[in-house]
Please model this.
Amino acid sequence: MFSSLIKAGLVLCSLILTANAVTAQSNDISAEKQALIKELLTVTNARATSEAVMNSIMDQQQQQVAKLISETLFKGDGHSPPADEAWRRKMMESAKRSGDRFRELFKQQVDFAKLMEDISYTVYDKHFTEGELRDLITFYQSPTGRKSITVMPQLFADSMQKSSEILIPQFQEIIGQLMREEQERLATESASLSPATSSTLPPPARPRRKRAATRRAPR
Model:
């Protein structure tokens, strides 16, 4: 049930390991280019934006867990028995409590904004020249650029929600098809093995008849 949160945690751990590696690499960037990247991160309000995006990711994960509980565990389709309202409420509260606790511990132990800032130096250095960085700074200082910064977290959240609405039903249908195919395959294999197994068994032994004892006549 909490696999989505676990996956998110694993992704974040990989980001932390990546940040440790790129921090050393950022020392190879020229001072002028580092200054441009820092200005770009300041203009785009990168720290606040990254935190808002992270919150959107966690919100989506919690919503997916709640949806999983409502639509999968309690749909009463013969595969998962329906639960009473009290049990449903307990499960929903447990999911929310775990999600809130995950978010609390993550914020205590990881400075996500600083993490993304460290990664950004290497990423921007890899993909943009100094001239292109200046162009980006000019764009984000324009009204359109400032608007794109403001709406980016909500744009990201809306994109995730729409993607989930479209993809999750398709994923469920594909998983259901795979399960049906696997059940049919196992049933076919079981049916094909049963006659072969019985034909290879030796025929049952016939019981021997006891011969009647013959008495000799007295001489």
